[in-house]
Design a protein that fits this description.
The protein is α/β, with parallel strands linked by helices and 489 residues long. The chain has helices spanning 11-15, 19-27, 68-75, 94-102, 115-118, 125-130, 169-184, 210-225, 238-245, 256-266, 270-278, 310-323, 327-331, 348-351, 356-368, 377-380, 387-393, 406-413, 416-430; strands spanning 6-9, 36-39, 43-44, 57-61, 79-85, 88-90, 140-144, 150-154, 161-163, 187-193, 229-232, 250-253, 283-285, 293-294, 343-344, 372-376, 437-443, 446-453, 456-463, 468-474, 479-483. It starts with 5 loop residues before the first strand and ends in a 6-residue tail after the last strand.
Length: 489
Amino acid sequence: MKNQVQLITYADRLTGSGLPVLKQMLDGPLVGLFSGVHILPFYYPIDGSDAGFDPIDHAQIDSRLGSWPDLKALGEDYEIMADLIVNHASGQSPEFLDVLENGTASKYWSMFLKEQDVFPNGITDEEAAAIFRPRPTSCFTPKTLASGEVVNFWTTFTDNQIDINVETEAGKNYLDKVLNLFANNGVKIIRLDAAGFAIKRAGTSCFMTDEAFAFIKQLSKQANEMGMETIAEIHSHYQTQIAVAEKVDRVYDFALPPLILHTLFTQNVDALVSWLTIAPRNCLTVLDTHDGIGIVDAGPEGEKPGLLNAAQVDNLVEQIHENSNSQSRQATGAAASNVDLYQVNCTYYDALARNDLNYLTARAIQFFSPGVPQVYYGGLLALHNDMALLDSTNVGRDINRSYLTPEKVDIQLQKPLVKALSKLIKLRNESQAFNGAFSLQGADSLLIMEWENQQHTACLKIDFETHLIEMTFADGKGTKRFNIADLLK
């Protein structure tokens, strides 16, 4: 993977069309900004109950977006990252419909995880309470077979997303088919979606079990042998992220987004510095994604202290709500049909009260943090909360999943903040310093982040007390110094 900025986007929601237009956009108005693109689920259908994360056919590109050759053409010029939806398939998938029709006689019977597979003698109330799940309701959904028998299928996320038993031959074959399609059609990086839930065991939280760790490691090895890297997508306590990082090519730094917000809200860098001192170096950094802003990643878990304490987490969430004029409150938790109660749904720009300087400062911190940066299309264009879409769907995460057109994109690209962010992206891409050694110092209101690679250096210095936010780049031939505010002019 190139150590340059990548784009995260839906093919249709950014372009109003599909893969060919996405390539035209990357080659045109977005030229020079991104070395790679994470294309969010492009499988059939893209408009299911979870915006493509509930594929009816994981091996088929939705015809409204294009075809496998279109994806391969895009991959000739950009590193493509795609989602391997490890944990579940749609309740309307041919495989699950066959299970409903034929029951135990179906060749896919073992592909889907049932309560009895993990709890053959039935589950106790205590065991049920111990299961970690991202939604407030039961992780099981009763489904009636054609025979009339009612079976409790495991549904971690929604009632329409039926968990896969990845330990069976049918489950393995299902994932192998998709892996081969990826490898043969230009995909270079695989995001292991919800992999932490992949293997459940009685008497545990059924999340990030020892067996799940081993599964992730083996799946990563398999992908590597096919010429692809893997990224683990796991929202959890920061110590879990550190442990997972040892088993995959890369892991997301999901603790970074809330810590940067905390830093800007309090003008104190201590929590951020503590994290960056121990954070995995083999990571992808994000501020925003198609999901909400993760909170659990920085907070405490039971008796384990977090990077932020409970009071700091509460203050952070309330400040986001206040900055967004309570729009995020309408989209978060039980206020909308969410499956992500550990996140706050809000654009990152609105979370910062649409403050251009703070937003650009947040991006600078992200780009100087260890890891390969990714920028979500809504963040690239500094979009506002999409309350109209939220009102129409009542899906909390849709507040940050706007539908655009090339014309709308062109308008946003002309905004001073977006132009400034584009300049910042190019500075990050062009400096060889970020392929070198990282060093960090800071306390209270002062933060200094530095990179050195022979004669190439890059330094970000932030002093909240004096309002200094400055970047310096050197390449052996000369030195360039930028005040972040100057990029907005």
